[in-house]
Design a protein that fits this description.
Length: about 400
């Protein structure tokens, strides 16, 4: 069996997830290089794949300059690097598994799409929710007409107050200049799902949202600019020590590595951006946003992105002419209410035992793409970049609308 030559740019959370799939079936793969600017993560990659020093890079330019033979490049770097790294990969005839977002401007997204066509190479964007059993089941119910014609879809992305603080206030996705607007960075998933379920183009949309809470004027009187020495921390839901030393201990692994001792986490929080007061950071992305959409055929949809929820989960409500579908991604349940036949509840917990990584979507997407590269077999569910660009068009249009007081933006 031919081994596929793989390289990874970015060995953080997402890069390590794909790395774990490679390790599971290592006989299928030959890891030829890993690019990661943090030395400790590069050392982990070295151990994970038994690499030599000359296969490790702290700089992507040096990797591309060496012009290695690579069948599949996994781009899991920060958002602002996606465009140039993907273009360089395509120019060197690599297939690319690209973390979302594709790029930070619509023009760059379109350029990548066109270059992939020119080079006859595959680019798959990691819109992994399409591959989860939760959304594939809902898609199948819609396509089979179980609720008649779909008239409206309502999708909610509950980011969770602690996830907002971790990623979008203190963390890497806090500034739109570096990672794009939050509706793109977080919700290109959700916009893609809505577009995929309806299977028709979005014609126009409007959007409202803002950064309301995580700003300086909301800092409690007497609070410090870091949690460690703050007299208010015991009464603050955003106290980083309460989170990372308790229910968020696994999230701390992204920050400190495998040493999850109280001492190591505490030391890191004392010194790092993740120990800052959420009301005294340099964040500028929104903490809530809504998008209203009209699709071809006068079908509508709405998306709510909300920081202020206890849990990090998605819900969906599909309204049809003969019934409706209510789905809870966290509970893994789908309820079909047919107006004549009554109610049916699908409990995915009884049907599937792998809900890791976006409800199992990470794994399915990865191996379907590998199958395409090795065997030239494109599964029914696998989505290439030309289809993924639509969600980015919608996200950029939503941000334009938001910045212009909710004006309607035409997409046609």
């Amino acid at each position: 069996m031919k081994r596929i030559k793989v390289a990874i740019i970015g060995y953080g959370n997402r890069g390590m997830i794909y790395g774990s799939f490679i390790k599971e079936k290592i006989k299928q793969f030959q890891v030829v290089a890993v690019v990661e600017f943090l030395k400790e993560k590069l050392e982990k990659a070295k151990k994970d794949f038994n690499l030599k020093d000359n296969q490790l890079y702290q700089d992507a330019d040096a990797f591309f300059n060496d012009k290695l033979k690579v069948d599949l490049l996994i781009v899991a770097s920060m958002d602002k690097y996606h465009y140039l790294q993907t273009i360089n990969a395509l120019n060197q005839n690599m297939n690319v598994l690209l973390e979302k977002p594709i790029a930070l401007t619509l023009n760059e997204c379109n350029t990548i799409n066109e270059r992939a066509k020119q080079k006859k190479k595959f680019v798959v964007v990691c819109h992994v929710l399409r591959y989860s059993s939760f959304y594939t089941t809902i898609k199948d119910l819609i396509d089979k007409g179980r609720v008649g014609d779909v008239i409206h879809i309502s999708q909610a992305e509950n980011v969770a107050y602690w996830h907002q603080a971790h990623s979008y206030v203190r963390g890497n996705w806090r500034k739109k200049e570096e990672t794009g607007p939050m509706i793109l960075a977080k919700c290109s998933h959700d916009l893609d799902i809505i577009y995929w379920l309806l299977n028709r183009p979005c014609l126009r949309l409007s959007s409202f949202g803002n950064l309301n809470h995580f700003i300086k004027k909301n800092q409690p009187k007497g609070a410090s600019n870091r949690c460690f020495d703050c007299i208010k921390k015991e009464e603050c839901p955003y106290n980083c020590y309460a989170f990372y030393l308790n229910e968020g201990r696994e999230w701390a692994r992204q920050l400190v590595g495998d040493d999850l001792s109280d001492e190591n986490i505490t030391k890191y929080l004392k010194e790092s951006p993740y120990g800052r007061c959420v009301y005294d950071c340099d964040n500028n992305v929104v903490d809530h946003q809504v998008v209203n959409m009209e699709f071809e055929g006068h079908v509508t949809a709405s998306l709510t992105m909300e920081a202020f929820s206890r849990y990090c989960y998605r819900t969906i409500h599909v309204y049809g002419t003969h019934g409706d579908i209510i789905g809870d991604f966290e509970k893994r349940t789908i309820t079909i209410n047919n107006y004549i036949k009554g109610q049916e509840v699908i409990d995915l917990n009884q049907m599937n035992n792998d809900f890791s990584g976006h409800g199992g979507g990470d794994r399915v997407m990865f191996f379907e793409f590998v199958d395409l590269i090795i065997n030239h077999h494109k599964s029914k569910g696998l989505t290439l970049i030309e289809d993924s660009v639509m969600s980015h068009r919608m996200a950029f249009a939503a941000e334009k609308s938001r910045l212009n007081n909710g004006e309607v933006v035409e997409l046609n």
